Amino acid sequence: MKKSNEPFWWAMFGAGGVLSAFFIPILIFLFALAFPLGWLPAPSFDQLEMLTSSLIVKLFLFALIFLSLFHWAHRFRFTLYDGLQVKHLNELIAVLSYGTALFGTVAAGWVLFFG
Amino acid sequence: MTSNITLEVFRYNPENDDEPSFQSYAVPCNKDWVILDALNYIKDNLDGTLSFRWSCRMGVCGSCGMMINGTPVLTCAKFLKDYLPGPIRIEPMEHFPVVKDLIIEMSDFVDKLKRVKPYIIRKEEQPLSEGEYLQTPAQLAAYKQYSMCINCMLCYSACPVYGLEPEFLGPAAIALGQRYNLDSRDQGKKEREDVISQDDGIWQCTFVGECSAVCPKDVDPAGAIQRYKVESTTNWWKSVLMPWSDK
Amino acid sequence: MKFFKPDQYTIYYKGYPKLYIRVKPIFWWLKKWTSFRFILRELTSLAVGYYAVILILIINAINQGSETFQDFQSWFSSPLAIIINLIALALATYHSITWFSLAPKAMVIQIGEKKVPGFLISGMNYGAWVVLSGALIWFFLK
């Protein structure tokens, strides 16, 4: 019997769903709205630089970015099937969405560990 | 004096029609009538050519499912008066081919139901002399909810994924597979996994959740599918990371 | 006929009447509120992906030094950015709410004959979410 590959993608979709559900709203609120717009006193540049140089923070951010990207890729792939009925482009859409997520993951690894 | 309510009924006669049409009937809106009573009133008094399925008229047989104002329901379980002032639009269950009027073709579902092997599978039957297979109340509680399914197929009509991808095994068949997987007497989980944990099985489901919303028996097929996904994913990673655990 | 394969059932369908097949319109999800809500829930993934990219850009800006970082920060104050970020925040919050409310469907815990009620499992998730978010705000403000 053919084994489905979906469990592999679904595991990342699920893990990314959990991590992003917990952390993304508050991070958008703080770093995209509250700090730049001065709603809350922003941490100084030096503080941020120190924070992102710690290995634990780096690993956490990498996991969050990597899994969030694959969460997006998997869910968006199925949204296209459900919403626009493009299942016949299955292979193309899978390659494009997971490929984009992989590209973003490499970029995240680069800026975090080699930047 | 009871007022009237209008029923707009989907009509399709395969012998004469290429396209379906809607026909309106005014029926008395008795406060203790369900929609099925109104359809029977039409059949008996207004138009004998109207065809529809029904049997028990008490939410057990699962044959009177129809689309009422776009939602799949058992017509024996919905009161006319709750739809006042009307009109009520009555269509055959969505996603199934129409045979005539409100009657749909259900072979696809029956075929899928057979594929999940919805019966107790034993590696070896225990001899009669050893008595019955015993089960504790807790073991019964593990699957009881899923055993309430009456095969009314409302969940298939509610599921957009089934409407888009007819190969999808679908809510009720997967929930019934789970019903036997979770039964302490059953040993057929592996056989069912070959059918259920496939691309056209649970992995086609995008958890719309409508199947559980329309289920008249609170079976919660959407929940059954998500549980299966979690378990199936765990098994998949186990067999990749620890191949020796796969016997 | 993609749905129905009469050849499988020839024995039953000799002289069978012609069936009427209904086709699902492409924009079926605009016809019903529950369907639209579902597609909206699925589209929250865009906000999640968007913010993953923003995080990469913020980290990159920090790496580049304080001037680049300041330039990048000022982009957040443009009206367009504010609108995009408010929409992203709304979608991301909707993702969290739906994710936690559906968690009990995938996680069923049975103790004895009773199943742990779903609202307890969701409730624990919501609680952890609030505590974590509060802890992060406290961490950055102290």
User: CATH class of the largest domain in chain B, please?
Assistant: Mainly Alpha
Summarize the main sheet of chain C.
Answer: 2 strands, antiparallel
Which range best describes the helical content of chain B: under 10%, 10-25%, 25-40%, 40-55%, 55-70% or over 70%? 25-40%
Q: Which secondary-structure class do the elements of chain B indicate?
A: alpha+beta
Element layout with pairings:
The complex is a heterotrimer of chains A (115), B (247) and C (142).
Chain A: H1 6-34, H2 45-52, H3 55-84, H4 90-114
Helix pairs in contact in A: 1-3, 3-4
Chain B: E1 4-11, E2 21-28, H1 35-46, E3 65-68, E4 71-74, E5 88-91, E6 98-100, E7 103-104, H2 107-115, H3 137-143, H4 154-158, H5 160-164, H6 171-181, H7 189-196, H8 210-214, H9 221-241
Parallel strand pairs in B: 1-5
Antiparallel strand pairs in B: 1-2, 3-4, 3-5, 6-7
Helix pairs in contact in B: 2-6, 6-9
Chain C: H1 10-13, H2 33-64, H3 66-75, H4 79-106, E1 110-111, E2 114-115, H5 118-141
Antiparallel strand pairs in C: 1-2
Description:
Chain A has helices spanning 6-34, 45-52, 55-84, 90-114. Chain A has one domain: Fumarate reductase/succinate dehydrogenase, transmembrane subunit (3 helical TM bundles of succinate and fumarate reductases, Up-down Bundle), CATH 1.20.1300.10. Chain A has four helices and no strands. The model of chain B has no long low-confidence stretch (mean pLDDT 94). Chain B starts with a strand and ends in a 6-residue tail after the last helix. Chain B folds into two domains: 4-104, Beta-grasp domain (Ubiquitin-like (UB roll), Roll), CATH 3.10.20; 107-245, Fumarate Reductase Iron-sulfur Protein, Chain B, domain 2 (Orthogonal Bundle). Chain B contains nine helices and seven strands. Helix content of chain C is 69%, strand content 3%. The mean pLDDT of chain C is 89. Chain C has a two-stranded antiparallel ribbon. Chain C has a domain at 29-105: Up-down Bundle (3 helical TM bundles of succinate and fumarate reductases), CATH 1.20.1300.10. In chain C, strand 1 and strand 2 form a beta hairpin. At the A-C interface, helix 1, helix 2, helix 3 and helix 4 of A face helix 2, helix 3, helix 4 and helix 5 of C.
